[in-house]
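Input/output pair, single chain:
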Amino acid sequence: MDIHRRIGEQGPPPFRSSRFFCVGSKWYFTTREGFDSGPFASRERAEIGLKRFLHVVQLLPEEQQLH
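Output:
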């Protein structure tokens, strides 16, 4: 569990769980906005998928970025 504050957060850090979960033998990641992505063959592949997703979001113009 990540107990660190994110930029802009105030007060005690909220509860956070892992972004990764497994259903059957397939792995998924979830975003803060509640978007689930997958399936991936392994957790490692899901981690790569999340990194790619975050990279694409950073390339979006500011007004289109997920908040």
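The beta strands are 20-23, 26-30, 36-40. The first strand starts at residue 20 and ends at 23.
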